[in-house]
Q: What sequence folds into this?
């Protein structure tokens, strides 16, 4: 991991090196952070894993909420637990919500206080959709057409 991290670090100063949440990944996190680089510890599925990542100095923790949902566990509960732990101990590690599947994941992540979310394009497009917005836009356009005015 350290060899790969050195290669990735040469790309740019703002590159975050991604490591898995394993013992070796946590050791790599600590070493990479000691060199002043950002680290994203990924594949997090429990609050205790997130605690270990923060203690290792992770810049970001990536809990996979959709994958937890797939197993019957409420993924957003994990985000709440991590937020509480990080707030309790004033950890600087940012919560990057991963494996987002729904607009409710995005909403809940924001309500809980997650810092970042990786959102697939279809979910991102769905965030701006609402039937009342579409209906309102149709009404505005119809009202404008009735005026006979043109812009430009």
A:
């Amino acid at each position: 991991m350290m060899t790969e991290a050195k290669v990735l670090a040469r790309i740019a100063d703002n590159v975050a090196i991604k490591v898995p949440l394993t013992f070796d990944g946590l050791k790599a996190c600590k070493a990479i952070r000691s060199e002043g680089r950002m680290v994203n510890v990924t594949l997090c599925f429990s609050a205790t894993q997130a605690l270990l990542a923060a203690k290792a100095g992770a810049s970001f923790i990536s809990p996979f909420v959709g994958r937890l949902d797939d197993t019957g566990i409420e993924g957003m509960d994990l985000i709440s637990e991590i937020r509480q732990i990080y707030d309790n101990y004033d950890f600087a590690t940012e919560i990057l919500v991963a494996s987002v599947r729904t607009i409710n994941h995005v909403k809940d992540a924001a309500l809980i206080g997650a810092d970042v979310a990786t959102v697939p394009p279809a979910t991102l497009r769905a965030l701006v959709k609402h039937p009342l917005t579409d209906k309102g836009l149709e009404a505005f356009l119809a009202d404008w057409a009735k005026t006979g005015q043109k812009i430009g």
